User: Fold these one by one.
Assistant:
Number 1:
Amino acid sequence: MQASTARQNLVTATLLAPSALWLFIFLVLPFVAIVVFSLGERAPEGGYQAAFTLAQYANLPARATAFWNTMILAPVGAFACLVVAYPVAYYLAMRASQRWRLVLLALIVIPFWTSLLMRTYAWMYILGGRGIPALLSLVGIEDVRLINTPGAVLLGIVYGYLPLMILPIYVSLERLDKRLLEASSDLGATPLSTFVGVTLRLSLPGVTTGFSLVMILLLGEYLIPTLLGGGKVFFIGNALVDLFLQSRNWPFGSAIAVTLVLVSVAVLAIAGRVSNRLAGSRQVDLI
């Protein structure tokens, strides 16, 4: 019995070894390097100079604007995606026929076939002076500014990340046992009570999965604030690009990157705790 268990453990370890080695080389080691850089100093010519100091972390308030913009616009953008995505996912899972469901899902996924850069450039034209503002000026509404504003950034976020919010919620709703809805109705619950007490509650794992996924990606977002914010709406990703590629302050940039990773881990931990508390131990996977 012990020999069989040892053999199974050896087979499991052999199968996991390639992926574990991959993660160690391309995830753990780079993060360790960033932590080491964050404890160093900026060299006179730029880059990294060996040292052991927490001065870079003490200097984090110098980039407070980027942090505040990210901490405000990232959750607001994720919540906006949720508000738009839930009705869409609900219709796909609960109302759409099987024939049309696959077509609608394909239409949701198709935007991923095009580069986010190209899609964001399209929004730059739509929100720019030759787009919606030009149409508004034809009806007498002048001096409307849409581009280079937080609203433009939020719109780009919702457009770019909406499919990532829809799919986990759809999977959660699609797996929901419809007999629970019938039982709730038979027991005299109103449609609203059934939705809140059964549908919404049992789909919370999908909600938290989608919200966490979008939120974490937004914490490091760079492209959308750069193009639709016009350099006036800075995210942490913009600060990292500036520190590593322009001012070449690698230790300070590494300290910000480590802080960003810690915030992402905190988001995952909070989302997992909330999901387990409100909806039990149900898990939602995309596969």
Number 2:
Amino acid sequence: MRASDLAVAQPEPAPPIVPQLGWQFQATAYGWASALKGDAGVGRLPTASLDASFGDILKNLKGAFMGSFIARNDTFIFGVDLIWTRIGADGRFKVGGDGPFAALRSGTSVSFQQDQTIATAFAGYRIPIGPPNLSLYGTVGVRYQNINVELDLSHTTVLGTGLRRSTSDSTGWADPLIGFAATYHFNDKWYLNALGDFGATSSSNMTAQGLVSVGYNWTQSFSTALGYRVLYTDYENGNDRGGSFRYKSTLYGPFVSMSYNF
């Protein structure tokens, strides 16, 4: 008997994980531990600088809902994402110039409350590049935002007199989006999700988002993911009477999600 006859047959390499063809649906509920940085102004009040950690927001959180739904196959993807929050935070005024607030001392504080709805819808077409376990889609869509802001000013002037002024405004707008959505399957359990988008209607009105997460399929129907998300908004409107709504913010922080897949 020759030595070659004793050689043990080597197993063939396992094929790469290929996403299942056909329509797949995913309903997701998630929690986003976001912090807030930016500024806001309503009407004739000066712009208030905002800087709230997740702890600050959680302490003042009055309600929240976050969820998404995605349908995809080997060619197309469709998705919607909805965020509603009611939060409060404190800010500080940037006072300058010779206007009606010039007599205020620096360090003026403001009580800030915000109801915000962010609804995003997108559709995409798969880009046939990369390994078979990568699903990459180019996307177009729209993001609608509605913000109700209440500002309550309380301060003592240099003359020692008290000053308190409250104002509120609500506005909504939509921005067209272009972006991508990608899923990379490491194996039948672990996967990586990423998406990004950008939209603008003018140099002062724009939005952008980035998200990346690592997920685990516990069963064919249930999965969880942990990731990080950033959402930027810059919006301003005004009128010829001097009133305006000014809102610039960055929401950022980690998130955790639970998904039902079918």
Number 3:
Amino acid sequence: MASDSFSSDESRVKREFWPTLRRVARSIPFAEDAVAAYYCALDRETPTHVRAALLGALVYFIVPFDAVPDFLPLLGFADDASVLAAAIAAVRIHMNDKHREAARRALAEEDLA
């Protein structure tokens, strides 16, 4: 059961992360961390428990219906940022230079930096 949920979360993040990020990247201060978390979560070398924590936080980021609606100016992504920041703080040791460099490159290529 848990494996099915993990796979479902991973598929959803792969499908919905970039469209969500493109829509909001310029209005959120944590875009690089979000993209680095994305790459860390999808990295098969990242431990499963770390991937699960990051995938959960990323799903919360992409789901439009959460504690504070994302369309509210300045407040909409505050809860998303908090959840993502907590997940990143918990697993920071596993987010390496490879993930951060991939994030910087992706943001530059998408012209979201």
Number 4:
Amino acid sequence: MGEGDQVQQLNFFTENTDQELDKVITFLKGIPNFERKLGRILRKSIDEVVNGRYTGRYSIEQLDKTEKTYIGTRVQHMLQHELDLPYGEVMDALVDGIEVDIKFTIGKNWTIPLEADGHICLLISADDNKSIFQAGCLRISSEVLNSGKNRDSKRTINAEGRELITWLVSNGSLPGNALLKLDPEVIKKVYSKKSGQERINELFRSCPGIVFNGAAIESVAMQKDSSKRVRDARNIWLKPEGISIYSGKYDNDKLLEKGLSPLEKDEFMSFYDLESETN
């Protein structure tokens, strides 16, 4: 049997006889705002493992191998909690009563354990640098896996298997990590400041019009009460320089008046405010 015939046979099986897979896909697609919820889950999972408040880190690339692996564990548990999915007896979760394994990667493929053979996997990947993610479902079998195994006997999905993934989100928008988009010289300048207050001041001074979420603020401040550093930057340090800091929690009405998009509750953005300079 040629590769084309094999793919055709697998497609026939998936499309015509796998009622459990259809139920899982229908259930997940039926979750209101599924793509947006999943994007937020991924953003929060990554930020929690990066742990910028205590480490000053802001990038997955700054993590060691064990920490990178742990992102997948956080994604699994947070996804089950946020989407109200019960724990499975064999696999990670029950989706509409069906055992489903949840697999996450920041790479280009997923590693599938032996015990997932015959079960459905919810496959999720994220690229923080590009602010995108994917999520899809696949029934695992030897036909959809590469023959090579790692030291834990896990195998990756082959080209034929990729063709069989039913994508729930093919090009999702991952809430951005603005620090990853900054010029390296700007990052260097911000982190060269000694105190958390000075770093926050420099961040908003150097990056007008850029939206920073709470995790980014914590990574720069490296303090528990990072929001106080923002308030002090806004009310004491930067106001005399004609710089205004807007908060999604309090200032969306002002942003709308200026014809700008509103921010999320934990987001902040600075502007060189001409009105402040003339008053």
